[in-house]
Inverse folding.
């Protein structure tokens, strides 16, 4: 999980930092855990929590005292799911790709240090993977992350790589150089593939989706058991690329 130190967050954004920590964690957090993740003094943390609780974005469990997303978060999530122009445009493309490929397909986006699964449509065939709607994952590992990372602004890309491949960690420099080479290849071919990087036995292909002026919005990712699709990889790559291109055209010319 990405931890942002207080010195890297503008004071005016610290309330959002606290909200993001609670949203990302996936389960209730204590005040002490929030202090560890945000780097904020306990008194400052309580000041940031007060308006979040007042507006229903965060709630404090009556018995445990732990902090968790509040009822207003439900309205935000529903509004995004039902009315977001990206979700509306992507829904049919995901369904069509699932139908044509008979495999599971997700829509993922980069959000402030993490890759978040915005939607996941599963096929009728069995698939056990870590991706689920609303779940966050690594920003540098797996096809989905790399397809996004390759097209992020250079400064953001460099910061993420530096954060995940620390110079004083043995072997980190070689992993960093390998990733940079992979990203260059992804930019040239407009898709990324991975196998066993996130889930053992799972192969995936991801293609970026752009809106106007080539602004990166998300990535369309197809996932399948590697053993099942050994002879179909290029076919599935082509399907995913075409679906991502169609979605990009929808976003560029609504």
């Amino acid at each position: 999980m990405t931890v942002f130190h207080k010195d890297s967050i503008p004071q005016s954004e610290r309330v959002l930092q606290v909200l993001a920590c609670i949203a990302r964690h996936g389960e209730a957090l204590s005040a002490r855990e929030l202090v560890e993740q945000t780097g904020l003094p306990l008194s400052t943390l309580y000041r940031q929590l007060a308006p979040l609780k007042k507006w229903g974005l965060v709630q404090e469990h009556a018995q445990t005292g732990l902090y968790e997303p509040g009822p207003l978060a439900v309205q935000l999530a529903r509004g995004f799911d039902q009315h977001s122009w990206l979700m509306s445009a992507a829904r049919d493309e995901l369904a069509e790709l699932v139908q044509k490929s008979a495999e599971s397909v997700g829509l993922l986006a980069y959000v402030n240090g993490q890759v978040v699964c915005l939607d996941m449509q599963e096929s009728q065939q069995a698939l056990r993977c870590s991706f689920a709607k609303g779940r966050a994952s690594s920003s540098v590992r797996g096809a989905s992350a790399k397809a996004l990372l390759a097209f992020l602004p250079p400064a953001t890309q460099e910061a993420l790589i530096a954060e995940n491949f620390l110079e004083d960690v043995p072997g980190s420099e070689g992993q960093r150089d390998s990733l940079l080479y992979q990203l260059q290849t992804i930019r040239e071919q407009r898709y990324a593939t991975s196998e066993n990087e996130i889930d053992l036995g799972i192969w995936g292909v991801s293609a970026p989706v752009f809106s106007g002026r080539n602004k990166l919005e998300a990535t369309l990712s197809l996932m399948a058991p590697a053993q099942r699709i050994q002879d179909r990889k290029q076919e599935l790559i082509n399907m995913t690329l075409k679906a991502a291109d169609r979605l990009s055209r929808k976003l560029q010319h609504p």
Notes: The longest strand covers residues 215-225. Strands lie at 58-60, 67-69, 104-111, 114-121, 136-137, 192-195, 202-211, 215-225. The radius of gyration is 19 Å. The domain at 84-252 is CATH 3.30.450.40 (Beta-Lactamase).
